[in-house]
User: Fold this.
Amino acid sequence: MIKTYTGITNIIGDIAELDATGVAFGELALITNPSGESTLAQVIRIDREKVSLQVFAGTKGLSTQATVRFMGHPMQVRFSDQLLGRVFTGSGAPMDGKPPLESAPAVEIAGPSVNPVRRVVPANFIETRIPMIDLFNPLVESQKLPIFSEAGEPFNELLARIGLQAKADIIIFGGIGLKFDEYIFFRRTFENGGVMDRTVMFVHTAADPVVERLLVPDLALACAEQFGIRGKRVLVLLTDMTAFADALKEISVAMEQVPSNLGFPGSLYSDLASRYEKAVDFQEAGSITVLAVTTMPGGDVTHPVPDNTGYITEGQYYLKNGVINPFGSLSRLKQLVIGKVTREDHNSVMNSMIRLYARALESKKKISMGFEKTETDEKYLQYGDLFEQRFMDLKVDIPLNQALDYGWQTMAECFSPQEVNIKRDILEKYWPKSTSEASAES
Assistant:
């Protein structure tokens, strides 16, 4: 039932308050100034007859004599296959110059996640052609993983590359607090890479109202759910969830809520989890995989946003000094696909290469402290250099099986078979044969 009220009693930041009855939490409202200008808002708190509205476009210029019309339903997004190739704002309005999808059915956003009983155990590998992901921490379909990064790292470039190269039917991009040139970068990358026709973009730029940041993940995930239940493998890319959390903090302060750690609301964990838990593999349908950038202020992994995120998600990719750090990164679901979906030698190559690289770093540290370099150190240092060039460099673009072959080749160039600590049956099958051995067999 649509209800209309005239008069706003209080405006605090981007929050408008009025007296109203019979409205629901999360309900959408249309606020219209006496001049005729309108903006959308959403109910975020109800205290008896006192209703607080979060105004999406901000309260600048909002009159206390404005008319508030409650719509009787929460925020919705229009859904159809015509969304593909389109770009929308953080409030769902077109920003690509094309008309809105007024005839498409409306879908409510920010609904509950899928019942765990109805979920399928993840079992499919998503190849990205990035060795530090595919070889050492594979991305599993329906997984939720953040990219932990500091400001200045190429996290947007990494996210865009995954969007271009990952095997997915649909890509849904959610940009939160982007600079305009960052938005242009993503759009041009997807267009030039030939994936824009299967991509939907929801973009909030730094010039847009702060509160619209809160809508972007919900809009993106609501669309992802609709594509997923229609049998599509959907990859959701979000950047930056720290900007999303900062918007939560700003709203919390405006509502005078009791702050938690560093001023963030006590509901931060639940607010983040309700978005990440949308990642799912539907029974007899498609899937939703979520990759989200989380920047760490000052590189502090104990900051409330990455700290809470780490408890929710199934690992992380740790981007530092321009590369994916193999020791700070983790994919907790990788054992579901390694050696089962991927090649049988995957687990052996992965474990041995990481162990040898750790020893290479130890040798480098020992020599920097003034210890004498040994013949063994020379082997590890050579291996460490090759590992960084062939696998850690983000410019490397190779499929998984080729990365595994390079792994064997790299180990063989630096060590004997006995030094890599791999089972004999795997070693005999995959260890590169020298030219003389190959000639003798032929």
